[in-house]
Structure formats: structure tokens, C-alpha cells
Design brief:
The structure is a homodimer. Chain A is α+β, with helices and mostly antiparallel strands and about 425 residues long. Chain A has helices spanning about 65-70, 70-85, 90-95, 125-135, 210-215, 225-235, 255-260, 315-320, 350-355, and strands spanning about 25-30, 35-40, 45, 100, 105-110, 115-120, 150, 160, 165, 170, 180-185, 190, 190-200, 215-225, 225, 245-250, 255, 265, 285, 290-295, 300-305, 335, 360-365, 370, 380-385, 390-395, 395-400. In chain A, the strands form seven sheets. In chain A, strands 6, 7, 8, 13, 14, 16, 17 and 22 form an eight-stranded mixed β-sheet that branches. In chain A, strands 9, 20, 21, 25, 26 and 27 form a six-stranded mixed β-sheet that branches.
Chain lengths: ~425, ~425
């Protein structure tokens, strides 16, 4: 596929994340209240104000949940109409008054997260972490090649790009300590992931093909993780407060429709999957990803470059597995892919892996090193599918680490 | 405290769950639409129709979330006004037209569950399960005496008493099998718990005293559990589909205010708690609990009798721990206590424990035995705090096990 041209010139650049081929959905506030918007080049279209051809009730609340709930026919109709409005000069006079410069707006959460599930479906990540914690011979848990392993996270802690992240307090116990202390996490980390947004509900089981059609779109996702809290708390029932401080998502929902030309297959199976998990067609996407780390007042270092195609399980497979027990899935559910690490050292999606548990601190361009995150560090995830002379990008997914809050008196010894 | 008398005679019986001392909050439908109700004796008060003295907007949706969000002063004002309306004969003529017989109404979910967290905070249960899975010497995980261990569950699967529960499908792998099968759970179980409902939000840490004030009320809770799905899936990230089929709650929210006379302390600490988890005053409640199992067409057997006072950690401690990492807590969050087992064999709150992992099938009064649940079994949780000549009860929390759905063609070999 090649670039689709718009009468908005900035959308025709090979460098913009937001050509006409993309049309991602977000929520913005330019000082006149929160509204639903569509990114196009350097502009945001105030979508409720144009002749979109849909029921106005879908745009009543500043969140994309109602449009998602309206279903795939509405999704297709809106995309077709927006493409028409933004490609055909004939609509320019009617549409132009409803364009706002991205630079003048604050981007808000694009949808209301119903529930948040995080998976562990990148094989390189699972092997790396397993090797560190259990040794190379027991790196992959016995169920890993059969189950897209997931756990429920906390929807209330999902925030949009640009939100500061406070270093968490928690129970920590070093290997040589008899008892835990209550202290700020000293091993606070990022996780480079993609998030899939469930746009249609289910009752009962759904096939992988059905699950794929239920997914409305994707975001970049940083699942901030306190490794020291996790080490002490996670047995036997899994991570809890280690993952509850914040999960940052990018501000634009890139629709499955926009990513369609970039479909690619999950890797060959090392163990046959059970029939319910088999994929009838390619269900991953070729999306180049990178992580930048910027110490306060210093230049950025890109610490990892990888690709969403590294996943062992697709979001559709995760969604299918999620519903096996009869678990109802809902509009606005967010599924984190799991950390996306490539096979090379500089393609690892977490500092835990990049510094090998802190044993090999990572050298930054500023001359500093990092084992885990320091206060003031800015993390930026970026991602884009590369077309012929254009790219379908996500916009930055950033967060700055702020110092732990003061300990309240009641929590002191 | 003694019985508070109402002009509704059925509320003055020592046997009713719902005397004037209780005034629990639910949602009902008598054929004229879902509305908010208050149980009193054999009747439900259609609370929005009486002179409740509050903003009518709090009663606009058939759920108690808006009242919860309005805060403790509103909670106290409503309780005081309802007590006045239902005790003083002078209000009888105005109130009586808005009473509906419980028997003529269907009870619905009393509130919208924001997120659901399940804990593992009953020590007898943790020791029993740990002994079965890891041996008596390693029964309690090292962190158990320091952390009220919890994991995030699935809010979408919480249902109200009376909802049928379909036996789940899932990946099962026996100890002698090389690979998993996809099959209906053969070790489907109940878990007797209490649920605490968060009525006020938080940002940042909250003390145990603050957490206690944030809790609006309590329900009985049955956390249905597929032990065989859990055994294969739960390492390393905890239970997922094993706990996602359904969680049943009782239909009435018994407020913290109604339970106030029944406060009791958590047991003596076997290891000092970190300061943030210490309780300034008694935070558990003396609530007698029982579980009845009724095979289809047969008489009921009460298979367990225990008490909420058996918990090692209170709901307030759980809530405090939940917020340590900065995790925002929200109105409508539901916290499951964890399975409440006493120290005696007949006080264990799950079949896993009662049948000791299936090795000692439980004899029922019908002459049958049970290791795990059979299709057609009706499970009923009951609970009440016993006052002087009255009881503050929860109403039945029931569910009937239905056969697993037919396997869709796409999931067959």
C-alpha cells in the first residue's frame, strides 16, 4: 500500500505518524473542554463537529467506548467517511474550521478502561527472566508453550502518556534480610508492550478469528514494574502491588483497520497448540518499536529497538484464551501483550533484561549508567508500521519518574 | 445492643435477617423495572419513592454506587432517616405504599463492581492448601505473615445470588500427562468468603483507620474455583481462568454501620506487622457463616460452619496494602477476604480442604459423597451476626452448577 494523500499537507509527509492511512482516535482538550479527536498530520480533527454521518450520541462523552460498542459496521463507516472528508478538497471549507493544532492541545485518556489484563507472551522476555530467576534449564515454565499466560492488572492505574509516575513504596526483602522493610522501590523498571483494546463484548467462548474481529485497535503500553516489590510478593498468587503504580498508554488508538496492511504471522510453534488457540491467518503486525531513556537535563539514549512481530502469541489468541472459562469480555478491556524483547541484547524491552538484573549496568550516551530507573528519568516508547513512503505511528508514550512521596507519619516506626 | 422495633411486624422476629438494626441495600425488580431497595423483615422498601431527604440524583440509576460516592455523611443521614421512617408509626401511611414483598421481586446486582480483588488472608485455609501442595513444613509462604496477599480478579464475572454457574472449560494436565487437554473442569469448587465494598476513592496511601472508614459494607461471596485449571496455569503469574467463570455475591449490602456492634479483633500477630499495617482498633466482625450443598432433587447438607472472625487480616488492612504502591482505589471496588476456614475439619470453606484434595470424599446426608462439585449441585452461603434477640443477616448467596457448554466446532481436534 502507498500513501493516501490528504489536503492537509502535513499529513503527506513520510515522517508523520499520522497520514491519512492512519486516522487514529484520541481525546484532547485545547482549553475548551475534552472532546474526541482524530489525528491527521500536525492537526486534530474535532470529529463530533463535522458531518461524520453517525448517531451524535456516539460522541456525547469524551471517550471512544460508545463508538467501540456500536460495532464493526460503524467502525468501517466512520473510517470511510473520515477518509472522504480529509482526502477530497471539496470538503475543505466545511472541515477546516474544526482542525486544532496538536501542539495546542493536551491529550487525555482515549477510552475508559473496563479491565486491564497483562500477558507474558513474548518468548525472548520469558526466557531472559526465567534464566535470571530459575536458571537456563528451567527458563520457560512448563505451561508457557501451551498457554498465553496472563494475569489481571489494575484498570484504575492506567494513565495516558505525559502523566508523571511516582516511585512506589512497598514491602522489600533482600535475599540476606530476615524480614521485609517498607521502603521506596529501588528496582523500578519499564516494560515495552503493545496494548490491544477490546471493542466488542463476549459471553462464552470465542474463536481466534472472532477475537480478532473484536479488537478495535492498539496502543503502545509501558507496564511500569517494581522488581523488588514483585520478588517478595509474587509467590504464590502473582504480581500485585509491583504492577499497580501505573501503566502508561500512548494517546492515540491506532485502529486494526489502519494496521491491516502490516499483518504478519506469529512464529512457528515449538509445541502444537490446542485447537482452540490455532490461528486461521496472520494475526500479528510488523510494528517497529523503540525505547528512549532521557536522564533529567541530559540527552536521550535509545536503549532498545525491537518489533511487535517478536510476540509468540497474538492479541487474538490472548483474548480467546481469556474467554475460555466463560469470563465475559467487555468493551474497553485492555490487553497488554507482555514485554516485547528481541533476540539481541539491544532489543530487550526492560531494564531488568538490559542490565541483566543489575549485574551489567547499561551505559547511556550521557556517560551515566542505569541498572534501574532513577528519579527524573523520562521514558519514551515509540512505534510505527512502515509503509511505502509513509508510516502508521502511535505518537510518543512517555512518563517521567518522580521521587517517592513522603512517608505518612502513621506508616513510620 | 438489642432489637430495634419497627411497625413492620416481620422485622421484629428474632429469625429475620433484616430487622431494623440491619437495613441492607439492594436492587430489585418486581416487574416494574429495576430499582434500589432496602430490606426490612419480609419486605423491600422502594427507597427512591419515600421522603429520604437526599438528592434524587443519588437514586437515578439502579445501583448503590452514587450513594457510596456521596460519602460517609450521606451514608449516616440515609440510615438515620430510614430508621426514623420505619420505626415511627407516624410515617406508616406515607411509607406503606412503597413496600414490596421480597417474595414477589427478583434481586439484582446491588452495585456496579469497578474492580475485583481477591485475597488469601485466612490462615487456616492458607495452611491447609499449602500443606496439600507443598507439605506441612512449607505450608505458609514466607511472605504470608507480612503481607495480606491478594491478586486481581475479574469484575465482569461477578454475579448476584441466584445466577446459574456453568462448569468451565480449560486447559487441564494431570501429573502423569505429558501435554494438556482442553476439557471441562473436573475439580470445580466453591470458596466461602466475605466481600468488602469500597465506598470512597483514594489517591496515594491510606492508613488502616482511613481504609476502615472507606468501606461501605459487606456481602457474602463465593469465589468459584477450578482447581485443575489453576494447578496447570498458576505458575508463575497466579490464578487466571481458574477464577474467571463466576464469583457470586449475596444480594444485600450489609453496611459497616449495621455491623458496628459486632466488631472484634484480628488474632494475635505471630510476626510483628510493619507499622503501616497495624490496626488501631478492632476491625473484624463476629459473623457466623455456613455453606449448604444441595444435590439436585435431594436434601441439603451443611458442609461447613465457620466465622468471619477467623481472618488473619481485616478488609481495612487489605485495602491499606492495596493502595501502598499508589494504586488508586475506586468507589465500587470489591475485595474478597479469601477463603474463611476454621481450625476444625467441619469449618473448612472449600471442598478442596473438606475432601483434602479429593482423597477423603465428603459424605452428604443424601448418602452421596462429594470431592468436588457435580452438575446440579446448589451451593448456598449464609451469614449473620447474632445480637441480643435479633440477627443482622446477609440473605442467601446461592448458585447452581450447570453442565459445561457444548464445545464449539472450531475448538475440536
Amino acid at each position: 500500500m502507498s500513501l493516501m494523500r490528504s489536503w492537509i499537507e502535513s499529513a503527506n509527509s513520510a515522517k508523520t505518524d499520522f497520514p491519512l492511512n492512519n486516522l487514529p482516535y484520541g481525546v484532547f482538550d485545547d482549553g475548551r473542554g475534552a472532546r474526541m479527536g482524530v489525528a491527521i498530520g500536525d492537526m486534530i480533527l474535532d470529529v463530533a463537529r463535522v458531518d461524520h454521518g453517525l448517531d451524535h450520541a456516539l460522541f456525547a462523552a469524551p471517550e471512544w467506548n460508545a463508538v467501540m460498542a456500536a460495532g464493526p459496521k460503524v467502525w468501517a463507516a466512520l473510517r470511510a467517511r473520515l477518509t472522504e472528508l480529509l482526502s477530497d478538497e471539496a470538503h475543505r471549507d466545511a472541515v477546516e474550521p474544526h482542525l486544532i493544532e496538536v501542539a495546542s492541545a493536551r491529550l487525555l485518556m482515549p477510552f475508559r478502561v473496563s479491565e486491564y489484563t497483562d500477558f507474558y507472551a513474548g518468548k525472548n522476555h520469558a526466557v531472559n527472566v526465567g534464566t535470571m530467576f530459575r536458571g537456563a534449564e528451567n527458563a520457560l515454565p512448563p505451561n508457557w508453550l501451551s498457554i498465553p499466560i496472563g494475569y489481571n492488572g489494575r484498570a484504575s492505574s492506567v494513565v495516558v502518556s505525559g502523566t508523571d509516575v511516582m516511585r512506589p513504596w512497598g514491602q522489600l526483602k533482600g535475599p540476606d534480610e530476615a524480614l521485609p522493610r517498607f521502603a521506596p522501590s529501588a528496582r523500578f523498571d519499564l516494560e515495552l508492550e503493545m496494548g490491544a483494546i477490546v471493542g466488542q463484548p463476549s459471553e462464552g467462548m470465542v474463536s481466534v478469528a472472532e477475537a480478532d474481529q473484536m479488537i478495535f485497535g492498539y496502543v503502545l503500553l509501558n507496564d511500569w514494574s517494581a522488581r523488588d516489590i514483585q520478588a517478595w510478593e509474587y509467590q504464590p498468587l502473582g504480581p500485585f502491588q509491583a504492577k499497580a503504580t501505573a501503566t502508561t498508554i500512548s494517546p492515540w488508538i491506532v485502529t486494526a483497520a489502519a494496521l491491516e496492511p502490516f499483518r504478519t504471522s506469529t512464529p512457528e510453534r515449538e509445541r502444537d497448540l490446542l485447537p482452540y488457540l490455532r490461528e486461521p491467518s496472520p494475526m500479528l503486525y510488523d510494528i517497529a518499536l523503540e525505547v528512549g531513556l532521557t536522564p533529567e537535563g541530559r540527552p536521550e539514549t535509545v536503549i532498545a529497538r525491537t518489533n511487535y512481530a517478536q510476540m509468540y502469541y497474538s492479541a487474538a489468541q490472548q483474548l480467546t484464551h481469556h474467554a475460555t472459562s466463560g469470563c465475559p469480555m467487555r468493551v474497553g478491556d485492555l490487553l497488554g501483550s507482555g514485554t516485547i524483547s528481541g533476540s539481541e541484547k539491544d532489543s530487550r524491552g526492560s531494564l531488568l533484561e538490559l542490565s541483566w538484573g543489575g549485574k551489567e549496568p547499561l551505559a547511556l550516551e550521557s556517560g551515566e549508567t542505569r541498572s534501574f530507573l532513577e528519579d527524573g528519568d523520562r521514558l519514551t516508547l515509540r512505534g510505527a508500521a512502515e509503509g511505502d513512503g509513509y508510516r502508521v505511528g502511535f505518537g510518543d508514550c512517555t512518563g517521567v519518574i518522580r521521587p517517592a512521596r513522603d512517608l505518612p507519619n502513621w506508616a513510620k516506626e
